[in-house]
Amino acid sequence: MSILELSKEIDKLAKIINEKNKELETLQKNYDSKLHTINKYIESISPSTTGTVPEEQLINAISKPIECPHCHQKLWDNQEKSTFLLIPKQKIDTKFDTTVAVRDEQPQQLTTSTTSNKQKKKTNIVCSYCKMTGHTRAKCHKRLNTPV
């Protein structure tokens, strides 16, 4: 593979990454706008509640089935379609700082794994001239030092 082909492939990958980042940003904006709408609705229903609910706590609460305490009828189950809509009593916190940190950590992990693989391959190489490990015949000092 030539350098030109390699640079074209890298360019394609960079464009794909940029498209995915734009999609992620639009999804985050849509999510924030929907949360903002829900929070406005919650304030209009009961303006007396001032606390906030973390996102993780809300997800945990929604994922569990909810039953009526009097008749024990299942009102909400995330796995099944339901006739009811769950609206939290308190505002929902929005956090997107963690997604940026996760994206930054992934390239660092890839670079460390590739360097360790190179070290392992280098130790397994056996020179065909002197039969020592760690180098090839082209880089063998014994062969290079002998006169022709």
UniProtKB/TrEMBL annotation:
Keywords: Coiled coil. One of its GO terms (molecular function) is nucleic acid binding. The keyword Coiled coil applies. It comes from the Eukaryota. The keyword Mitochondrion does not apply. Residues 3-37 form a coiled coil. Pfam families: zf-C2H2_10. This is CCHC-type domain-containing protein. It comes from Candida albicans P78048. The lineage of its organism: Eukaryota, Fungi, Dikarya, Ascomycota, Saccharomycotina.
